[in-house]
Amino acid sequence: SEQILINQLNNGNVHNVDSIRFGIDGYLYMGIGDQGFVNDQPDGYNNSQKIDQDLWSAILRIDVDKQPGNLEPNPHPGIPVDGGGKAYYAIPADNPFVGATQFNGSAVSPAAVRTEFYVVGLRNPWQFSFDALTDELWVADVGNDAREEVSIFQAGDNGGWVYYEGTLPGPRPDRVPPPGFEYRKPVWEYDHGGGEFQGESITGGFVYRGSQFPDLYGKYLCSDLLSGNIWSIERTSGATNINRIAGQAWLIQFLSNPANEDVLMLNFLGGRILKLAGQTADLPFPETLSETGIFADLADLTPNPGVVGYAPNMAFWSDYAVKSRWFILTNTTDRVTMSREGNWTFPEGMMWVKHFDLLMERGNPATSKRIETRVLVRNASGSYGVSYRWNDAGTEAVLVPDAGVNFSLSITNAGQPTVQQWRIPSRAECLVCHTPAAGHALSFNTRQLNAPGAIASVSNNLIHLLEVAGYTSNGLGDPAELPRHIGPDETEYSLEARARSYLSVNCGYCHMGAAGSVPGAWDGRAFVKLFDTGMILGEAGSNGGNPANKYIVPGDVDHSIIWNRMGESNGFSRMPPLATYELDHTNIALIRDWIVNELPARQSYEQWQIAHFGTTNAPGSGRGDDPDGDHSVNEEEFLAYTSPTNEFDAWSGIMGSDSMGAFVGHDLGNRQVTIEISTNEFQSWSFWPVPGNDGLPIAPGTTRTFDLPDGPQAAGFRFRIEEP
Description:
Layout: E1 17-22, E2 28-32, E3 58-62, E4 102-103, E5 106-107, E6 117-120, E7 125-130, E8 137-141, E9 147-153, E10 164-165, E11 168-169, E12 188-191, E13 202-203, E14 220-224, E15 229-235, E16 240-247, E17 251-256, E18 263-267, E19 272-275, H1 289-292, E20 295-297, E21 302-303, E22 307-310, E23 322-328, E24 351-359, E25 368-379, E26 382-390, E27 397-399, E28 405-413, E29 416-424, H2 427-433, H3 446-449, E30 452-455, E31 458-461, H4 462-468, H5 495-506, H6 561-567, H7 585-598, H8 605-613, H9 634-640, E32 654-658, E33 661-666, E34 672-678, E35 686-687, E36 704-707, E37 716-722
Helix pairs in contact: 5-7
C-alpha cells in the first residue's frame, strides 16, 4: 500500500526528484534538484547551499524500515506524521549532518538541520548509482550554461553548486563561496557543444561489472541527452580516461539487466528500451559515397534509377548551404502513406539523401564547393543517419565517423576573407531532430511537398506526381486545396504566414507543445492556430532574468525570446543548438518585421470579445451568438473583421467588373479564405479550381481577385473563412 514519506511544496516544474534507489546498506537514497529558476535566475529559490531549509539540491538518505537506534527527522511541513506525531521514516544515525552546528562557516541549529542530507550542493542530479564492487556513489549533475559533470561523492560532500559549475565559477555573481569553502571536484566535466566530448545535458549511468563487454569492466557509463554521445569513464592511478563508445540521443537512464548483464538504456522520445550492442548498427554502410550506388555519376551527381529528386517548399537553415535532395524506395511494393497535416508513414528501408554545397564566395555560384552528403534510413526501430564528407577535389566522399567531425572553411564574404565553421553531426545528433514525433524525414510532408517538381521528366505538383507514379498508398485530393509552406520572399502573403512557415520548418520538429521533445513549451507547427501555439506572450522556462520576456511579445522584439534566440541577442543563447554557426539574417528580419509591423494588430477571439463587449463572458459575446441580428454570428463577424453590434456592418466578399470582365475576390488579410462555387442554384458546393484560390493568408490591406469564367452558365460563389 502507498505511504507518503515526503510531501514538500514544489514551486518549480524542473529540477525536482530525479532518481530514487536503495543502497547496499538498505537505506533509501533520493537525488533531488534545486527547484530550478526564478526569473531565469539559476538556483532561484536559493536551495543549493542551505542545510536548514527544505529538502532540495541534494542526495537524501533515509531509513524506511525505522531500524532501532536511528533517529526521528527534524519537523518540517512537508513531512507527514502518524497519529503519534512520528514521521514514516527515520534518519540513519550516521548521516553526516546529524548534530551539525556549522555549515559553510555559519552557525546552524541542529534542530533545524535537514538530517536527511547525505550530499549537498547539487543542481540537478540526473541519475546516480553505486558501484556494485566498491560501493562508490557516482552522480551525474546537469549543468547550467557551461559545464556538465560526473562526480564520486562520499557522505557529507558538497558538490559546489551554485558557487561553482564544475570547476568554473558559478553563474550568480551574488552567490560567492565563503572563505575556506571546499567542495568535491568532479571526476570529469565537459563543455556545452556538439563535439565528441561535449553535449548539453548529462545522463548518469553505472559502473559496468559484467562479463559481456570485457573492455568496459570497471568503467562508468554515461551519455548526453542532446549530443547523444555515450561515454565510458575509467579512473587509473595516473589519469581519468574518457572514451566515446556509441551514440544515441534522448537517453534518460541506464539500467543493467541482472539476468544477462545487458546494458539497457531508456529512450525518452522513442518510448523504447534500447540495448548496448558490441558493434554499430550501420556497419553495412560503405566507406565511400560511390560505393553506395546512390549516384550513377559523382561528377554531376546523376542519380541511379529509383533515386528520385525533389525540392521542398522551404529549406531548413543550414549556414548558407545550397542543398539537393533525393528519396529512395528500396523495392517496387513499398508505399508511402500521406496525411494532410500529420506525419507521413514510411516503409522500412526507405532512404533520403541530402547533399550540401557551399559557395566559397557568397553570392557567386561559380565558387560552389561540395561539403557533405547525408543519408537518412528508415528502419524497424525508427531511423538513423550517416554522412559522407567530400574531398577537396570534389571527386569522392568518405564515410564520417560515428562521432561526427568539425572543420573550418575559408570563404569570402562581401570581398572580405573569413573563416566559416562547419560541423557534420554525429549519428546520434541526427536523431535529435529526426525523431518519430517529427516524422523522421522532416522535409517529406504535405506542406513541404505541395510544390512544383518533376518525376521521370514529367513536371507537375510533387504530391500529385508521387500519387500517379505509384509511390503512395493513398491520395490527398486536389493539391490546390492542400496547405503548403510559404517562403520569406512570397510577399503577397502575410508576414505571419511566412513567419509561421519558417518557425514550423526550423523549430517545429522539437517545439510541438506536449508532443515535442520539450513538453509543455510552445508549438511551432504551422497548422496550429496562432493563439493556440503558446507563442504569443507565452511564459518561458528561461526568460533571461526578466519577467517581461515572453516567447513572442507583439510589437517588441527586444523582449521576444524566439527572435532573440534566432539572433543570439540580448543575452540569449542560439537556437537551434546543433550544427549551425551562421545567423539566418533573412528570416531574422522576417520575424522582426512580423512582430513589429503586423502582429500588434492581430487579435485572438478573446481580445476581440473584450474590444467589442468589454469582457469575455458578456451576454451575447459567445461565438454562436448574433447580438446585432444580422444573421452573422460572432464567429463569422470575428473572421470577417466586422462589428458584432452593428447590423449594417457586413462583409460579403468582392464582386465587380473591369475592362477584362467580371471578377470575385476578398480582402481578408491573415485569414485562410477559400472560394467555393455552385453551378446548380446552390444545391451543392465545391472547391473552385482556379489558380491562386489556395486558402493561404494574404497580406493585410491587400485584395485577391479571380476572373469569373466566360459563358452563359450561372454560378454562385461563397467563402470558407478560417483563422490561421
